[in-house]
Amino acid sequence: MDVHVAQARRTTATVLKQWSLPEAPAADARLVVSELVSNAIIHGSGDVRLRLRHDGHELRIRVTDDSTEPARRRRASAAGLGGRGLHLVACLSLRWGVADGGRTTYAVIPTLTEVPPCRRTTQSSTDPTC
Question: Where are the alpha helices (DSSP H) in 44-101?
Answer without folding.
Answer: 85-92
